[in-house]
Each structure stands twice: as structure tokens, then as C-alpha cells.
Amino acid sequence: MSLPNYMEPVDDVNNNNNGETDNNENENNNNMNGGASFGDEEFDSENQEYGNTQDPRAAKRKRYHRHTQQQIQEMENFFKECPHPDDNQRKELSRQLGLDHLQIKFWFQNKRTQNKNHQERHENLQLREENTRLRADNHHFREGLANASCPNCGGPTAVGEMSFEEHHLLLENAKLTEEIRQLSEVAKYTGKAVMRYPVLPTPNQAPPFEPPMITNGSLGSVKEADKPLLIELAVGAMSELIALAQMNEPLWKEGVHGMILDLNEYTRNLQNGLGPKPVGFRTEASRETAIVFMRHMEIVHRLMDVNLWSTMFAGMVGRAITHDTLLTGRQGNLDGTIHLMTAEFQVLSPLVSNRECYFVRYCKQHGEGLWGVVDISIDHLIPNLEPKCLRRPSGCLIQDMPNRVSRVTWVEHVEVDDGGELHAMFKHLLNSGQALGANRWLSALDRQCERLAIMMAPNIPSIEPGGQITVTNNAKQSLLELVERMSRGFFDGVTTSNADIWMNLGGYTGDSVKVTTRTSLNDPGRPEGLILCAAHSFWVPAPPTTVFDYLRDENNRVNWDVLFLGGNPQKLTHIFNGRDNRNCVSLLRSPNTSQSEMMMIEKSSTEPAASFLVYAPVSVPSMEKVLNGGDPKYVPLLPSGFAILPDGTAQPGKAGGSLVNVAFQMLVDSYPSGSLTFSSVSTIESLILAAANKIKACFTQQTP
């Protein structure tokens, strides 16, 4: 009887008596072909000892014997603890069990091979089952894909029927088809190509346009037949915006406050879609470029959402409405969207009237990461409307850049009819373009991007002097949300919106203080009742930075704020929300014990074209709710404060003065239907004029 090959490790035994090698075990694995295991029986080692092969028939006379159950059990137990015994352990087992040490060695070697084969057979069985399941799934998916079509290109998507290049070409074809569809829709409206800037009829010509009716200052929807001219106007405006953003001298000249448009070059180089400038109108045209900390698509989204847009530019945009959407973007994004809108553009003073405009806003993608948003007026197309402000192509190009920032080029080009009503105090500011020019828009955008980035930070920086209170990061975010709502309330109180009726109180004291009333009902953000708003503007012979630093210094508060006549306020927390440390939010407490149940929340904010100090009294229980995670929307506020603007007279090497605009708000009756009394008007007038006179006196004394 011949012994199988895997039972013949004789040479290996003679060469290595201290243990088995991996090669020895691998050889045994290769020689086992699924036959029976010989782990429980061994041949007589005397016929194989030390390579005794002189008699060729000796191998045929090898004697086998089966191990006893006790021997097998002992070796099984030892194998569980140590499947690879060394030479000393094998000798000890051979002594205990009465077996030769080679028998011990071969038994363990065969046992390991047997276990390995069992494990491989088990794994092979599992792999076969998994393979069968995957084949069934693959067959099911192939059947599902056989009749499927690509949602983007409409072509087949069956596996193996289309190469990557073919699929890419189909997607590109679908994109071009969509662009052709959009241009065809525009051509359907315009009746001609849209590559050139359209030359539209001048205001004194009868345009082929029947605009929607204006009811209570609101446009209705545009009829389908009335859309062609508006779409053509928007497409042409985008072309002009790109030219204005990319061209330099001689079209643009370097001015004191940025790039200024040369009107003669503009007339010669760009076709004028709105016709010549109307008689009596003056032009404000400027351009500015900056890097802002916000992704480009987030900026585009905020510009195309009227609520987000008016909130982001709360100090510049008053009432804003989207009346209709003339075109929607392709494939669900904003590319190609055209809105019909109305907005009031405002300067933060009761002495400057708001500029109301009707315009279309067009959003277009011009390449990878490059978007444009442009406005163009339609006021001159509306019969029986005497426009006071025309927006020639104005807007911005937004370029995506690394590190979550965007490069924004802003162009602002408007024509305004002041109608002889422009106050002398604001003449230089408006003529310089600083009030509503490109620099003002872009600095406001940069400041808001900075503020939003701070609000999303995991750890908002702050200082708690004296450690009297501990403010969590969630509480800081709530306070920042609260002061933003407070700022918007202040802007509403310092500007003369067309929806409000302002009365001039100049007859009482000779100074121009304007007042208006507003009712608050079911508004959790304001106390319920009749609210009196008063606003006043005055000039100070000091640059805006100096005035802003004076007002925000709590040590000077006692000089002008009647709420802190008892001494300087106590600062409980100081939260930073900008690169400039002066951009911050503070929580103050009056040293006056009679006001122990009230706190003062204050926001100071500065940017190159404007600075603000806004504050409002808040009850201690309401503030504690906010600090403990309560909703800041339900804290009633009556904000007051200052808006500090340059007076427009600054020149290189010469600092100009400041225009300080102050607004106070006061609850005069807890019933919305209450009536205004002379006493309440006199009180708020005296308060606002007292603060203004003290501030003017301070800087008048400092002037040489």
C-alpha cells in the first residue's frame, strides 16, 4: 500500500527538527485533492526512519495503526490551545501519550491542513451563494435598464450600448438644445437676433408696450403679449453690463471715491437702450471690485430672492416686491431667470426722498463659475408715470474663486431727477456717488458676508467684562439675530418711505425734525400700540470715523443719552462680529437703580461708506429668555440710533465732515387706535434735539 504524497515530509523532518515551515504546509495543501483525512492514523516510523530506502519494497510494507480515542482527545485539546507546538512540546506529548515525536508532528500538521481545507470549502460555498445572488440582481437591473432613458439627454442608458464619449456628446447636445430653446423663446418675443444691444424708443415715443396696471403702487402680472420688449431689454442690459465691467480707460476714469464713468465715451461706445438722458436728470455712474467671503452661488441666490436681497441691503433697499417672473431658469437653476420688480432705494436720512424704480432683473451664467445679475428700468415705458429715477444697466459680475470667496465687480448707473428738492446738506454726498454708488453697494455686501460668516462660526469671539454673565455660543447667535432685526427697525425709522406720511416739526424750534406714526398690532417683534418715530439730520465738522468712535465709546454715553445720565453704562458682554473690532454687539446695564429691570442691547457697525450705532432697551426677563435659548423674534424692540455718512467733500489729503442722522422711537399709546398728543410730540422732539445739540457742541469745541 503506497502512502499519499502529503504523508511524506521525510526530507523536511530530517532538515528541520524544531518546527514546520509554511512551505511544508502549503505542499500538503496542494497535494490534498479532497480525499479522506489521515489525521487519526499514522504509519510506523521505524520503516521510514532517517530516509531508510535501501529496500524498494519497504515502502509497500509500511504498517499503519490507528491512535486511541484517548490519544486523539488529548491531541485535540492541545491543538485548541496551541495548533503549532514546538519541538519540546511535541516531545512532552509523545512521552505522555506513548507516541513517537514524528507521529505527534505529522498529526498536528495534518490537523492544520484538515482545518484549512474545511474553512476553504465553507468560504467557497459562501462565495458561490453570493455570486448567484449578484447574477440574479445583475439580470434584474439589466432588464430595468433595457428601456430606460437619460433624464438629461433623453438617450438610451442600457449598459454596454453607449460609450463614454457618446454619452458625453448626448449630454452636451442636450445642453445646447436647451440654450437654443431659450434663445428661440427670446427671439420669438423680440422677432430678431439678440447679439446687439437693442435700440429702444425714447421716452417721448410711443412704445409698443401695454404695461400692467399700477394699483396702490404695485404692478400686476405682465401679459404674454407684453413680454417681448421687457425680455429684449434685459438681454441687451446684460450685454452692456459685461462691457461696462470689462472695459477700462477711457470709458472709466479714476475718481476720488473709485472709478467714474465718462459719459461722452459711454455715448460713443455703447448704444443707449433707454435713449438719451431725460432733461433735468443727473447721472450717478461708478464701478468697484472686491473679494467677498461668500460662495458665488449664494450671492446669486440672495440677489434673485427679493426678501433676502432687501434684508442683505437693509440700509439701502426699502420696500421691494417681485411682481412677475418673465422667464424661468433652465434645468431648475437661476440661469436665464428674469423678474419684474419694484424697489425703493434709500439714503438714511429723512431729508432725502426715496428713489422708487420699476425694473427687470436678469440672471445669466456666462461660464464656469461666472454669473451676472443686471437691472434695467422700465419706468419710461409706463404711461402716466413720471419717473424720478431710471436704472440704466446696473448690477454685478460674480466670479467663483478658491477658499469659499468670490470676486465681485459692481456697476451702478442711474439717472435721477431731484426736482429741486435735494437738500443742500446732502448735495455733495449724492453728487459724489457715495450715497448709493458702487462702492456703497459693494461695501455693504462685504460687511454682510462677513457678518453671516461670523454667525455660522462654531465659536463666536466675545468678552464678558467682570465675568458677571456667561454667554454660550447659541446665545451669541441669538443675540446677533436680534440685533439684525433691530437694525432693520432702525432703518425703517430713519428714512422717508413713500408708504409713510412724515410731518415736519420745524415750526416749533426752527430745526428740521420729522415725525410719523405707525401702529403695531399682532407683531411679536414690536410692542403693541401707537408708535411715534422722529428723525433728524445734522452736520458735524469731523470725519465719520471720529464721530463713530465718539458715539460708540460708553464713557461718552452720559454726554448725550438721557437713559444714562446717572453714570456710564456697565458692559455685560461684548461680542465681535467682524474683522474690525468696532463691529460688535454689546449688552449694557444702566447704573441707575430705577432702571434695574431694563437692559440696553447695542450694535456698532462700520464700513467704508457708512457707520451705524443702533440700540434698544430690552426688559431683563426678555433678555434672559434669549440668553437661555429663546426665540429672538418674540422680543419687542423700539430701536433708536445714529447713521453716520460722509458729507461728500473729502479730497486727497483733506478730510471732510460727517452727516449724522438720528432716529428715536417711542410708544405713545398702548392701543393701536390711540391718538397722538402734543405732549408726546414735544417730548420726542426735545430728546432728539438735545442729543443732536450735545454732539454738535462737542465737535464744534474741538474744531480749531
TrEMBL record:
<comment type="similarity">
    <text>Belongs to the HD-ZIP homeobox family. Class IV subfamily.</text>
</comment>
<keyword id="KW-0805">Transcription regulation</keyword>
<keyword id="KW-0175">Coiled coil</keyword>
<dbReference type="Pfam" id="PF25797">
    <property type="entry name" value="PDF2_C"/>
</dbReference>
<feature type="DNA-binding region" description="Homeobox">
    <location>
        <begin position="60"/>
        <end position="119"/>
    </location>
</feature>
<dbReference type="InterPro" id="IPR001356">
    <property type="entry name" value="HD"/>
</dbReference>
<protein>
    <recommendedName>
        <fullName>Homeobox domain-containing protein</fullName>
    </recommendedName>
</protein>
<dbReference type="GO" id="GO:0003677">
    <property type="term" value="F:DNA binding"/>
</dbReference>
<dbReference type="Pfam" id="PF00046">
    <property type="entry name" value="Homeodomain"/>
</dbReference>
<feature type="domain" description="START">
    <location>
        <begin position="223"/>
        <end position="454"/>
    </location>
</feature>
<feature type="compositionally biased region" description="Basic residues">
    <location>
        <begin position="59"/>
        <end position="68"/>
    </location>
</feature>
<keyword id="KW-0371">Homeobox</keyword>
<feature type="coiled-coil region">
    <location>
        <begin position="108"/>
        <end position="137"/>
    </location>
</feature>
<feature type="region of interest" description="Disordered">
    <location>
        <begin position="1"/>
        <end position="69"/>
    </location>
</feature>
<dbReference type="InterPro" id="IPR017970">
    <property type="entry name" value="Homeobox_CS"/>
</dbReference>
<keyword id="KW-0539">Nucleus</keyword>
<dbReference type="GO" id="GO:0005634">
    <property type="term" value="C:nucleus"/>
</dbReference>
<dbReference type="InterPro" id="IPR002913">
    <property type="entry name" value="START_lipid-bd_dom"/>
</dbReference>
<dbReference type="InterPro" id="IPR042160">
    <property type="entry name" value="HD-Zip_IV"/>
</dbReference>
<dbReference type="GO" id="GO:0000981">
    <property type="term" value="F:DNA-binding transcription factor activity, RNA polymerase II-specific"/>
</dbReference>
<keyword id="KW-0238">DNA-binding</keyword>
<dbReference type="InterPro" id="IPR057993">
    <property type="entry name" value="HD-Zip_IV_C"/>
</dbReference>
<keyword id="KW-0804">Transcription</keyword>
<dbReference type="GO" id="GO:0008289">
    <property type="term" value="F:lipid binding"/>
</dbReference>
<dbReference type="InterPro" id="IPR023393">
    <property type="entry name" value="START-like_dom_sf"/>
</dbReference>
<feature type="domain" description="Homeobox">
    <location>
        <begin position="58"/>
        <end position="118"/>
    </location>
</feature>
<dbReference type="InterPro" id="IPR009057">
    <property type="entry name" value="Homeodomain-like_sf"/>
</dbReference>
<dbReference type="Pfam" id="PF01852">
    <property type="entry name" value="START"/>
</dbReference>
<feature type="compositionally biased region" description="Low complexity">
    <location>
        <begin position="14"/>
        <end position="35"/>
    </location>
</feature>
